[in-house]
Model the fold of this input.
Amino acid sequence: MPTTFRELFQNFSSSPSILWQSSKIEVMKQRKIGDRFVGEIGLGCMGMSWAYGSPATASDAYSVLSRALELGANHWDTADLYGSGANEELLRPILAERRSEVFLATKFGNVYDRDLTSHRGQVESNAPWIVDGTPEYIRKCVDRSLQRLGIDQIDLYYQHRVDPLVPIEESVAAMAELVKEGKVLQLGLSEVSATTLKKAAAVHPIAAVQNEFSLWTRDFMSEEVPATRELGVAFVAYSPLGRGFLTGSIPTVDSLEQSDNRRNMPRFSEDNLESNMEIVAVIKEVAAMRTAMPAQIALAWVLASSEHIIPIPGTKRVNRLEENCAASDIVLTAEEMSKLNNLQLASGDRYGATAMTYVKA
Done:
Protein backbone atom coordinates (compact mmCIF):
# COMPACT_ATOMS: atom_id res chain seq x y z
CA MET A 1 0.00 0.00 0.00
CA PRO A 2 1.50 3.40 -0.97
CA THR A 3 2.00 5.67 2.02
CA THR A 4 3.52 8.89 0.68
CA PHE A 5 1.99 11.79 -1.23
CA ARG A 6 4.34 10.95 -4.08
CA GLU A 7 3.41 7.25 -4.34
CA LEU A 8 -0.27 8.01 -4.20
CA PHE A 9 0.02 10.59 -6.94
CA GLN A 10 1.87 8.17 -9.23
CA ASN A 11 -0.70 5.42 -8.66
CA PHE A 12 -3.81 7.54 -9.01
CA SER A 13 -2.85 10.58 -11.10
CA SER A 14 -5.20 9.47 -13.85
CA SER A 15 -8.10 9.38 -11.41
CA PRO A 16 -8.08 12.61 -9.37
CA SER A 17 -11.38 11.71 -7.72
CA ILE A 18 -9.81 8.80 -5.84
CA LEU A 19 -6.49 10.48 -5.12
CA TRP A 20 -5.46 10.67 -1.47
CA GLN A 21 -8.07 8.28 -0.16
CA SER A 22 -5.63 6.09 1.82
CA SER A 23 -6.00 6.37 5.58
CA LYS A 24 -2.28 5.60 5.88
CA ILE A 25 -1.16 8.77 4.16
CA GLU A 26 1.93 10.30 5.72
CA VAL A 27 1.61 13.65 7.45
CA MET A 28 3.06 16.49 5.42
CA LYS A 29 6.46 17.61 6.59
CA GLN A 30 6.47 20.88 8.50
CA ARG A 31 8.44 24.10 8.63
CA LYS A 32 8.43 26.88 11.18
CA ILE A 33 6.95 30.39 11.19
CA GLY A 34 8.00 32.12 14.38
CA ASP A 35 7.09 29.72 17.16
CA ARG A 36 4.56 27.74 15.11
CA PHE A 37 5.03 24.67 12.93
CA VAL A 38 2.97 24.58 9.73
CA GLY A 39 2.75 22.33 6.69
CA GLU A 40 5.71 23.00 4.42
CA ILE A 41 3.28 23.71 1.56
CA GLY A 42 0.58 26.22 2.39
CA LEU A 43 -2.47 27.53 0.56
CA GLY A 44 -2.81 30.93 -1.07
CA CYS A 45 -6.51 31.80 -0.99
CA MET A 46 -6.53 34.95 -3.16
CA GLY A 47 -7.56 33.31 -6.42
CA MET A 48 -10.71 31.89 -4.86
CA SER A 49 -12.17 35.40 -4.83
CA TRP A 50 -10.11 37.72 -6.96
CA ALA A 51 -7.60 38.33 -9.75
CA TYR A 52 -7.58 35.04 -11.66
CA GLY A 53 -10.87 34.89 -13.51
CA SER A 54 -14.21 33.78 -12.09
CA PRO A 55 -14.33 33.38 -8.29
CA ALA A 56 -14.82 29.96 -6.76
CA THR A 57 -18.26 29.12 -5.41
CA ALA A 58 -18.57 29.00 -1.64
CA SER A 59 -19.09 25.25 -1.89
CA ASP A 60 -15.98 24.67 -4.02
CA ALA A 61 -13.87 26.87 -1.75
CA TYR A 62 -15.09 25.00 1.31
CA SER A 63 -14.12 21.69 -0.33
CA VAL A 64 -10.61 22.93 -1.09
CA LEU A 65 -10.14 24.33 2.40
CA SER A 66 -11.38 21.16 4.08
CA ARG A 67 -9.12 18.99 1.94
CA ALA A 68 -6.17 21.25 2.67
CA LEU A 69 -6.51 20.54 6.38
CA GLU A 70 -6.75 16.81 5.74
CA LEU A 71 -3.50 16.98 3.76
CA GLY A 72 -1.66 19.08 6.33
CA ALA A 73 -1.72 22.31 4.30
CA ASN A 74 -2.89 24.25 7.35
CA HIS A 75 -1.13 27.55 6.60
CA TRP A 76 -3.65 29.75 4.78
CA ASP A 77 -2.94 33.16 3.31
CA THR A 78 -5.44 35.92 2.56
CA ALA A 79 -5.60 39.74 2.65
CA ASP A 80 -8.14 42.51 3.01
CA LEU A 81 -7.36 43.59 -0.57
CA TYR A 82 -8.54 40.34 -2.15
CA GLY A 83 -12.03 41.02 -3.41
CA SER A 84 -12.23 44.05 -1.06
CA GLY A 85 -12.65 41.75 1.93
CA ALA A 86 -14.58 39.02 0.13
CA ASN A 87 -11.72 36.53 0.42
CA GLU A 88 -11.57 36.92 4.19
CA GLU A 89 -15.35 36.48 4.39
CA LEU A 90 -15.09 33.32 2.28
CA LEU A 91 -12.95 31.71 4.99
CA ARG A 92 -15.30 32.58 7.83
CA PRO A 93 -17.60 29.50 7.72
CA ILE A 94 -14.80 26.95 7.93
CA LEU A 95 -12.90 29.01 10.49
CA ALA A 96 -16.03 28.92 12.66
CA GLU A 97 -15.75 25.11 12.64
CA ARG A 98 -12.02 24.44 12.55
CA ARG A 99 -10.19 27.54 13.78
CA SER A 100 -7.74 25.61 15.97
CA GLU A 101 -6.45 23.65 12.97
CA VAL A 102 -5.57 26.69 10.85
CA PHE A 103 -2.52 28.94 10.90
CA LEU A 104 -4.06 32.05 9.37
CA ALA A 105 -2.25 34.95 7.74
CA THR A 106 -3.86 38.12 6.45
CA LYS A 107 -2.60 41.54 5.44
CA PHE A 108 -3.20 45.28 5.36
CA GLY A 109 -1.51 48.11 3.50
CA ASN A 110 -2.77 47.99 -0.09
CA VAL A 111 -5.77 50.28 0.21
CA TYR A 112 -8.97 48.55 -0.88
CA ASP A 113 -11.38 51.18 0.50
CA ARG A 114 -10.23 54.74 -0.05
CA ASP A 115 -12.60 56.05 2.60
CA LEU A 116 -10.39 54.36 5.21
CA THR A 117 -7.01 55.75 4.24
CA SER A 118 -5.16 58.52 6.03
CA HIS A 119 -3.48 59.60 2.78
CA ARG A 120 -6.16 62.02 1.69
CA GLY A 121 -3.93 63.82 -0.81
CA GLN A 122 -3.46 60.65 -2.83
CA VAL A 123 -7.18 59.97 -2.81
CA GLU A 124 -7.91 63.46 -4.08
CA SER A 125 -5.33 63.10 -6.85
CA ASN A 126 -6.93 59.80 -7.87
CA ALA A 127 -3.66 57.88 -7.51
CA PRO A 128 -3.93 54.45 -9.20
CA TRP A 129 -2.46 52.62 -6.21
CA ILE A 130 -2.37 53.70 -2.58
CA VAL A 131 -0.36 52.07 0.19
CA ASP A 132 -1.08 53.15 3.76
CA GLY A 133 1.13 52.16 6.68
CA THR A 134 -0.04 54.78 9.17
CA PRO A 135 -0.96 53.65 12.68
CA GLU A 136 -4.50 54.99 12.20
CA TYR A 137 -5.06 52.90 9.08
CA ILE A 138 -3.53 49.77 10.62
CA ARG A 139 -5.94 49.90 13.55
CA LYS A 140 -8.94 50.28 11.27
CA CYS A 141 -7.85 47.38 9.08
CA VAL A 142 -7.14 44.84 11.81
CA ASP A 143 -10.56 45.30 13.38
CA ARG A 144 -12.30 44.93 10.02
CA SER A 145 -10.31 41.81 9.16
CA LEU A 146 -11.12 40.20 12.50
CA GLN A 147 -14.79 40.93 11.96
CA ARG A 148 -14.86 39.55 8.41
CA LEU A 149 -12.97 36.42 9.44
CA GLY A 150 -15.08 35.94 12.56
CA ILE A 151 -12.07 35.34 14.79
CA ASP A 152 -10.47 36.92 17.86
CA GLN A 153 -6.81 36.71 16.84
CA ILE A 154 -4.81 36.66 13.61
CA ASP A 155 -1.88 34.24 13.66
CA LEU A 156 0.29 36.26 11.26
CA TYR A 157 -0.42 39.85 10.25
CA TYR A 158 1.51 41.27 7.29
CA GLN A 159 2.09 44.76 6.04
CA HIS A 160 1.23 44.01 2.41
CA ARG A 161 3.45 46.74 0.93
CA VAL A 162 5.76 49.31 2.49
CA ASP A 163 4.34 52.82 2.62
CA PRO A 164 6.93 55.22 1.14
CA LEU A 165 5.39 58.05 3.20
CA VAL A 166 5.75 56.29 6.57
CA PRO A 167 9.00 54.94 8.09
CA ILE A 168 8.83 51.15 8.43
CA GLU A 169 9.75 51.52 12.09
CA GLU A 170 6.58 53.54 12.71
CA SER A 171 4.36 51.00 10.98
CA VAL A 172 5.91 48.05 12.81
CA ALA A 173 5.62 49.84 16.15
CA ALA A 174 1.87 50.20 15.51
CA MET A 175 1.64 46.53 14.54
CA ALA A 176 3.48 45.60 17.74
CA GLU A 177 0.71 47.27 19.72
CA LEU A 178 -1.74 44.80 18.17
CA VAL A 179 0.38 41.95 19.51
CA LYS A 180 0.25 43.46 23.00
CA GLU A 181 -3.53 43.74 22.73
CA GLY A 182 -3.85 40.09 21.66
CA LYS A 183 -5.40 40.86 18.27
CA VAL A 184 -2.34 39.54 16.45
CA LEU A 185 0.06 36.75 17.35
CA GLN A 186 3.00 37.36 15.00
CA LEU A 187 4.10 40.01 12.51
CA GLY A 188 5.16 39.81 8.89
CA LEU A 189 6.17 42.01 5.95
CA SER A 190 5.54 41.51 2.24
CA GLU A 191 7.70 42.53 -0.75
CA VAL A 192 10.52 43.95 1.35
CA SER A 193 14.25 44.23 0.91
CA ALA A 194 16.81 42.87 3.35
CA THR A 195 17.52 46.43 4.47
CA THR A 196 13.87 47.13 5.32
CA LEU A 197 13.55 43.80 7.12
CA LYS A 198 16.50 44.60 9.38
CA LYS A 199 15.06 48.01 10.25
CA ALA A 200 11.71 46.43 11.11
CA ALA A 201 13.23 43.60 13.15
CA ALA A 202 15.00 46.17 15.32
CA VAL A 203 11.56 47.36 16.48
CA HIS A 204 9.78 44.02 16.93
CA PRO A 205 10.49 40.39 15.96
CA ILE A 206 9.35 39.61 12.42
CA ALA A 207 8.11 36.05 11.97
CA ALA A 208 7.83 35.97 8.18
CA VAL A 209 8.65 37.82 5.00
CA GLN A 210 6.34 37.09 2.08
CA ASN A 211 7.97 37.87 -1.24
CA GLU A 212 7.35 36.46 -4.70
CA PHE A 213 9.67 33.52 -5.36
CA SER A 214 9.69 30.86 -8.05
CA LEU A 215 11.67 29.52 -10.97
CA TRP A 216 10.78 32.69 -12.89
CA THR A 217 11.16 35.10 -9.95
CA ARG A 218 14.52 34.67 -8.27
CA ASP A 219 15.08 38.35 -7.45
CA PHE A 220 15.37 37.69 -3.72
CA MET A 221 17.83 34.79 -3.83
CA SER A 222 21.01 36.80 -3.31
CA GLU A 223 20.04 39.06 -0.39
CA GLU A 224 16.60 38.46 1.12
CA VAL A 225 16.70 34.67 1.35
CA PRO A 226 20.06 34.73 3.21
CA ALA A 227 18.92 37.66 5.40
CA THR A 228 15.74 35.91 6.51
CA ARG A 229 17.67 32.72 7.22
CA GLU A 230 20.21 34.65 9.30
CA LEU A 231 17.49 36.40 11.32
CA GLY A 232 15.39 33.27 11.85
CA VAL A 233 12.57 34.67 9.72
CA ALA A 234 10.46 32.36 7.55
CA PHE A 235 10.50 33.22 3.85
CA VAL A 236 6.97 32.68 2.54
CA ALA A 237 7.05 32.29 -1.24
CA TYR A 238 3.95 33.65 -2.94
CA SER A 239 3.18 32.80 -6.56
CA PRO A 240 5.59 29.82 -6.43
CA LEU A 241 4.01 28.54 -9.65
CA GLY A 242 4.46 31.82 -11.48
CA ARG A 243 0.74 32.64 -11.25
CA GLY A 244 0.02 29.28 -12.85
CA PHE A 245 2.37 29.78 -15.80
CA LEU A 246 4.94 27.23 -14.59
CA THR A 247 2.30 24.50 -14.59
CA GLY A 248 2.37 24.59 -18.39
CA SER A 249 -1.38 25.11 -18.54
CA ILE A 250 -1.35 28.65 -20.00
CA PRO A 251 -0.25 28.32 -23.64
CA THR A 252 -1.46 31.79 -24.65
CA VAL A 253 -2.90 34.83 -22.95
CA ASP A 254 -6.12 34.20 -24.91
CA SER A 255 -6.62 31.07 -22.80
CA LEU A 256 -7.27 33.32 -19.79
CA GLU A 257 -10.68 34.78 -18.97
CA GLN A 258 -11.24 38.40 -19.94
CA SER A 259 -11.46 39.36 -16.26
CA ASP A 260 -8.12 37.70 -15.41
CA ASN A 261 -5.54 40.18 -14.09
CA ARG A 262 -2.71 38.22 -15.70
CA ARG A 263 -3.75 39.62 -19.06
CA ASN A 264 -2.27 42.95 -17.89
CA MET A 265 0.99 41.55 -16.50
CA PRO A 266 4.07 42.07 -18.69
CA ARG A 267 5.30 38.48 -18.42
CA PHE A 268 2.09 37.23 -20.00
CA SER A 269 2.25 39.64 -22.94
CA GLU A 270 2.76 38.30 -26.46
CA ASP A 271 6.23 39.83 -26.56
CA ASN A 272 7.39 37.88 -23.49
CA LEU A 273 5.29 34.73 -23.46
CA GLU A 274 7.20 32.85 -26.15
CA SER A 275 10.53 33.43 -24.40
CA ASN A 276 9.09 32.44 -21.03
CA MET A 277 7.77 29.20 -22.54
CA GLU A 278 11.40 28.07 -22.69
CA ILE A 279 11.41 28.01 -18.88
CA VAL A 280 8.32 25.82 -18.87
CA ALA A 281 9.88 23.47 -21.44
CA VAL A 282 12.76 22.67 -19.10
CA ILE A 283 10.43 22.15 -16.14
CA LYS A 284 8.34 19.78 -18.25
CA GLU A 285 11.48 17.89 -19.25
CA VAL A 286 12.45 17.31 -15.61
CA ALA A 287 8.86 16.41 -14.73
CA ALA A 288 8.66 13.81 -17.50
CA MET A 289 11.79 12.06 -16.23
CA ARG A 290 10.28 11.94 -12.72
CA THR A 291 6.75 10.93 -13.80
CA ALA A 292 5.60 14.10 -12.05
CA MET A 293 3.62 17.18 -12.96
CA PRO A 294 5.40 20.44 -13.86
CA ALA A 295 3.78 22.16 -10.85
CA GLN A 296 5.29 19.57 -8.54
CA ILE A 297 8.79 20.11 -9.92
CA ALA A 298 8.42 23.89 -9.60
CA LEU A 299 7.31 23.54 -5.97
CA ALA A 300 9.98 20.95 -5.15
CA TRP A 301 12.59 23.43 -6.39
CA VAL A 302 11.23 26.14 -4.08
CA LEU A 303 11.30 23.75 -1.12
CA ALA A 304 14.85 22.65 -1.93
CA SER A 305 16.13 26.22 -2.25
CA SER A 306 16.23 26.64 1.53
CA GLU A 307 14.68 24.81 4.47
CA HIS A 308 13.10 28.03 5.78
CA ILE A 309 11.16 28.77 2.56
CA ILE A 310 7.43 27.94 2.62
CA PRO A 311 5.54 28.10 -0.70
CA ILE A 312 1.84 29.00 -0.74
CA PRO A 313 0.46 27.96 -4.13
CA GLY A 314 -3.16 28.93 -4.70
CA THR A 315 -5.94 26.96 -6.32
CA LYS A 316 -9.73 26.72 -6.62
CA ARG A 317 -9.72 22.97 -7.27
CA VAL A 318 -9.28 19.98 -4.98
CA ASN A 319 -7.35 17.93 -7.54
CA ARG A 320 -4.84 20.74 -8.04
CA LEU A 321 -4.46 21.11 -4.28
CA GLU A 322 -3.69 17.39 -4.02
CA GLU A 323 -1.24 17.64 -6.89
CA ASN A 324 0.55 20.54 -5.20
CA CYS A 325 0.77 18.74 -1.88
CA ALA A 326 2.41 15.79 -3.63
CA ALA A 327 5.46 17.98 -4.21
CA SER A 328 6.27 17.57 -0.53
CA ASP A 329 7.61 14.08 -1.30
CA ILE A 330 9.74 14.97 -4.32
CA VAL A 331 13.46 15.29 -3.59
CA LEU A 332 15.29 16.71 -6.59
CA THR A 333 18.73 15.37 -7.45
CA ALA A 334 21.79 17.61 -7.61
CA GLU A 335 21.70 17.33 -11.40
CA GLU A 336 18.03 18.36 -11.52
CA MET A 337 18.65 21.29 -9.18
CA SER A 338 21.56 22.45 -11.32
CA LYS A 339 19.45 22.24 -14.47
CA LEU A 340 16.67 24.30 -12.86
CA ASN A 341 19.02 26.77 -11.19
CA ASN A 342 20.53 27.57 -14.58
CA LEU A 343 17.23 28.41 -16.22
CA GLN A 344 17.06 31.73 -18.04
CA LEU A 345 15.55 34.67 -16.23
CA ALA A 346 11.93 35.50 -17.04
CA SER A 347 11.21 38.09 -19.72
CA GLY A 348 9.14 41.05 -18.55
CA ASP A 349 8.43 42.70 -15.21
CA ARG A 350 6.35 40.96 -12.56
CA TYR A 351 3.77 43.76 -12.45
CA GLY A 352 2.81 46.87 -14.36
CA ALA A 353 4.76 50.11 -13.82
CA THR A 354 2.76 51.46 -10.86
CA ALA A 355 2.76 48.21 -8.89
CA MET A 356 6.46 47.69 -9.53
CA THR A 357 7.25 50.85 -7.54
CA TYR A 358 6.09 49.04 -4.39
CA VAL A 359 8.07 45.80 -4.69
CA LYS A 360 11.31 45.02 -2.86
CA ALA A 361 10.91 48.25 -0.91
